[in-house]
Amino acid sequence: MLRVKESFIKINHGGLGSLLNSIQTLFVGMLRIWSIPIVLMLSVASGFTTYYGLSYFIIPWIALIITIAIQSIIVICSLEIAGIHWKANRLRYLSVILSLLVAVTASITFSYFKFYEVSQSETIRINRINEIRKDVDTYLAAIMIAKGDILKLQNIELDKATAEVSQAYFGTHAQVPPSYKNIVGEGPFWRHYNQRYQAKKAQFDQLDKEFHLLDEHIRTLQTSLNHLTVDTEKNFQMAMTELQEVQLKFNQLATNVGHTVPQAPILMTYAQFVQGVTPTFAMWSDFSLFAFACAAMVDFFTFLLSYRLETTAPGPLSEEEQELAFECLRQFSQFSINGNDELEMIIEKSDFERARRYSDWSRMFAVGFLLSRGFLRKIDDRSVEFAPNLYPLVAKRMAEQLRLIKSQSLVNAKSDINQVPYE
């Protein structure tokens, strides 16, 4: 109860602004702490996809070591880039940038295979179905053409047999003996040609019946192909069975009438049909922007969060650090409000200070300290501006200074009153 009362008194004393600043500082600190596991999780995710693609090209345990090295380089170089400056050490800066680019390129390249498989798996499945359909349709089209040729030839032969029967009946057939010429009736000559006609007609009817049965198998085959996306294994096996039936029956029919048979397609097996995507560099020829964007996005977020961890302040300043920063900042004298509506100050020595050979080591230490902690932002070589999280700290110290001045004034006033002599 006493602690609650003290907290309430402290809140009333500091005001709502102090409370909001404390909440904001706590929230920002929690976000910075939360960034660490996020970076680790992103590195693990990127490492998994990188290892997946890399393991198809080299030995798995070597791929694992290389993957750990790649992800470590990305995080370490991201932190180093945030901590070094181009003008300070160009060679080191370029080497870190080059190392980061190599690591990110390797990570994205091999991660691309996994994201390609995930994003293109349905497309690849549809392409396989379309490939099977195309091969089967081409074969069935060849069968239909051959079927038309066979029926056309059989119709010609049947028409020829019909004409011969009619000529034999009326005695006008070229093979009729002179004694039977122009004699109408069903004689032995007619019976011979009628027997041939009946045999040819029975053969044609049987062939037509067989083609009707073949058409049923073709319809079943096409139905199975159309339903490959539903109950894939059952329909695939049914389609293969019906295709074999169509091939066997048509080959028998075509061979019996002396017609050539079309070449049957060689289709993929069910294991090949459901096989996953094997990473190959041929995937880059069929480039997937979505897969590439996903692979690049993971590494970009890893770099960004790692970079931000190093560039932003790790947490609030302690009381001693606040006192040090405030006292050193008070030693600067050139302040202004810049275009960003922030308080800007000149950190280089003034002409008067140069003339006096003033040592500004302590205040420059404070500037470097606050810059590294994110409480100041560098404008150029000679000026910096206050970050939003520095204003409450300075305001707090200024308020304490004002209270001390006010208290000292009251003490001095009382002292002056006590020293006045009575008349």
Descriptive report:
- The protein is mainly alpha-helical and 423 residues long.
- It has helices at residues 2-54, 60-83, 90-170, 188-226, 232-256, 270-274, 289-311, 319-329, 351-355, 361-373, 391-419; strands spanning 335-337, 343-346, 376-380, 383-386.
- The chain has a four-stranded antiparallel beta sheet.
- A hairpin with a 5-residue loop joins strand 1 (335-337) and strand 2 (343-346).
- Helix 2 packs across helix 7 (289-311) and helix 3 (90-170) packs antiparallel against helix 4.
- It starts with a helix and ends with a helix.
- Residues 1-5 have low confidence and may be disordered.
How do you describe this structure in short?
The protein is mainly α. The chain folds into three domains: 2-119 and 285-311, no CATH class; 127-274; 319-403, Arc Repressor Mutant, subunit A, CATH 1.10.10.
Task: Map the helices and strands.
Elements lengths: L1 H53 L5 H24 L6 H81 L17 H39 L5 H25 L13 H5 L14 H23 L7 H11 L5 E3 L5 E4 L4 H5 L5 H13 L2 E5 L2 E4 L4 H29 L4
Antiparallel strand pairs: 1-2, 2-4, 3-4
Helix pairs in contact: 1-2, 1-3, 1-7, 2-3, 2-7, 3-4, 3-7, 4-5, 8-10
Which tags fit this structure?
single chain; 423 residues; mainly alpha; Arc Repressor Mutant, subunit A; 3 domains; four-stranded antiparallel β-sheet; 73% helix; rod-shaped
Number of helices: 11
Q: State the share of residues found in helices, binned by percent.
A: over 70%
How many whole angstroms does the radius of gyration measure?
46 Å
Main β-sheet, spatial strand arrangement: 1-2-4-3
Number of strands: 4
Order of helices and strands: HHHHHHHHEEHHEEH
* Beta-strand share of residues: under 5%
Which spans of ≥5 residues are poorly predicted at pLDDT below 50? 1-5
Report the mean per-residue pLDDT as an integer.
77
Whole-number count of domains: 3
Molecular shape: rod-shaped
Distance between the termini: 54 Å
Largest sheet: 4 strands, antiparallel
By oligomeric state, this entry counts as: single chain
Specify the structural class: mainly alpha
